[in-house]
Amino acid sequence: MHPTLTSDRVLAVIRAATEDVFQTMLMVPIEPEPSFHEQAASQSFDGVIAFVGLAGPWAGSGRIACSPALACRISGALLSCEFAAVTEEVLDAIGEITNMIVGGIKTALEEELGPMGLSIPTVIFGRNYQTRASGATNWIVAPYRCESESFDVRLCLVPQARVAPHRLETTGSLV
Which string of DSSP letters, residue by residue, matches 89-132? Predict the structure, then answer.
């Protein structure tokens, strides 16, 4: 982490952004569980995972993972309707919820890390699949309970190496 950016600070930002979205946008109660760090271990997963990338002087990803039932529940809360199964609307809603949470994290950390951009969300749904972020070494994981379900919000950020700009020198014409 950056000398002025601690794991505790990042965790506090993850918690604040997540709880803000769940309280104000979804109006769904959640309870935090003990946080932890996780190396980029590959494990099998069933459910919905959404990623949003961060780019700038620091880069990485924010991720939310939940069961299909919880994806339907929180998507229904966002869209004011009910879903019995994961549909395109549910996947879009989970992408938007992830975008709101990671966007809140980005905004809070920009004071310390400089301006960052967000990618569009990538949402994956299925059974027995694995995900891996290339180059990601350490995720800060903030797990939650939502009624009888659990979900987690994860963030991995690393400083980007400063690369000197290349100068293109040409002789003759470029045709």
Answer: HHHHHHHHHHHHHHHHHHHHHHHHH---EEPPPEEEEEEEE---
Distance, in Å, from the CA atom of 44 to the CA atom of 131, rounded to the nearest integer, reads 8
Domain boundaries, the chain: 7-159
pLDDT band at 171 (very low <50, low <70, confident <90, very high): very low
Give the global pTM.
0.86
Q: Report the alpha-carbon distance of residue 90 to residue 50 in Å, rounded.
A: 11
What is the identity of the amino acid at 53?
G
Q: For residue 166, what is the enclosing H or E element? A: none
Residue 129 has pLDDT above 80, yes or no: no
- Which ranges of 4-67 would DSSP assign to H, the alpha helix? 7-20
**CATH 3.40.1550.10 describes domain 7-159:** yes
